[in-house]
Amino acid sequence: MGETDWTKKLEEETGIRFRTTRPEEIERESFLMIQEELGESFLASYPETQLPVLLRVIHTTADFYYGESLVFANGAMEAACRAIRRGLPIITDTTMAASGINKAAAGKFGCQVHCFIGDEDVKEEAKHRSMTRAAVSVEKAARLYPDCIYAVGNGPTALLRLYELIREHKIRPALIIGTPVGFVNVVEAKELILQTEVPAIVARGRKGGSNVAAAICNALFRTAG
Amino acid sequence: MGETDWTKKLEEETGIRFRTTRPEEIERESFLMIQEELGESFLASYPETQLPVLLRVIHTTADFYYGESLVFANGAMEAACRAIRRGLPIITDTTMAASGINKAAAGKFGCQVHCFIGDEDVKEEAKHRSMTRAAVSVEKAARLYPDCIYAVGNGPTALLRLYELIREHKIRPALIIGTPVGFVNVVEAKELILQTEVPAIVARGRKGGSNVAAAICNALFRTAG
């Protein structure tokens, strides 16, 4: 621990004592702080295999709410590890989620990351059918990668369309990461996914985000590694 | 309002009545819900020019905490509009933040979006000097784009280095968006930025994120437009 050369001067000037500004220590320190705040009894009661995912989500959001809202359904952790080790493609609903996924970690398993939201054919079809691009993207994924990990961090309509296509046996993701955020249909869409038999990691309620979806993927790479 | 063709069937099957799944209505409905929950007295007391930024941040996070934590310092809104209309480059600390910025909106003003975190020279120098890449990126920005908008959604050390370079007159951002998230040095770094005379939009406390930084940029494009 302790300051590096460049922050020593800053500490002297400001009177602030930084916990650490060393790259290799910041993350470790953060995780220690998170575990300290969660407390021993929470940590002891939380399923051990799921804990690294929760810790990384809290690290990404500084929001302890996820301690209550994160749900692991239908053997999600085991399914996630299998899917990653098989090198299944990861489909995200936003470029932000795709951008937040650690490509080096994904690459080790041969997992490619795809996002169709900006594709011209998706845009055109969405406009034509008065659908969201997120929902049309799911249809494209069902055609190209029916066997995949689907990570939804933004658009609840992606989860709604996923739900329908799963029921119609047109897509069968090995894992759904369902963390869309917002106000319209978000809570409902997440609950519908939890009614399927597909392994899923879902942040119940309104909160979530592309950053949360990416953080979950990145935590899963560590577990699978 | 009302369901589209593809969700009518889903509504019948599930018994859920979706508020709307029409792309053009989802955002409007979301903002109505946010304003309703904030309440009339809050809305009336919140500075009118800053409100669209707050609403978009809450829309992005579903977190009303930002109603208290978002701070606009040193004429931030006026400075932001001027900077955007001048087409100043926007430097982000993460590719996720860069990815979340609406490029079409930025392009209308001629604002380019840059992120140096993945650059080889930044990586090497950070390793050599035992600094974070976020901090080294600020030095690179100071050399290439001293007159810029700097949006920090993740790394507090970027704000610490910005603070130092501002004091050394080596960079003078027209606006700092300071919304890093986390546990180590995050609160302190944000407070230091608020001690400068640089116009700044800062999410005080631990919370924030690359998504928040991008959302603020996107809200500012609308205000400047």
UniProtKB/TrEMBL annotation, chains A, B:
GO terms for biological process: cobalamin biosynthetic process. Keywords: Cobalamin biosynthesis, Isomerase. It comes from the Bacteria. Pfam families: CbiC. Residues 25-222 form the Cobalamin biosynthesis precorrin-8X methylmutase CobH/CbiC domain. InterPro entries: Cbl_synth_CobH/CbiC, CobH/CbiC_sf. GO terms for molecular function: precorrin-8X methylmutase activity. Pathway: Cofactor biosynthesis; adenosylcobalamin biosynthesis. Gene3D superfamilies: Cobalamin biosynthesis CobH/CbiC, precorrin-8X methylmutase. Belongs to the CobH/CbiC family. This is Precorrin-8X methylmutase. The lineage of its organism: Bacteria, Bacillati, Bacillota, Clostridia, Lachnospirales.
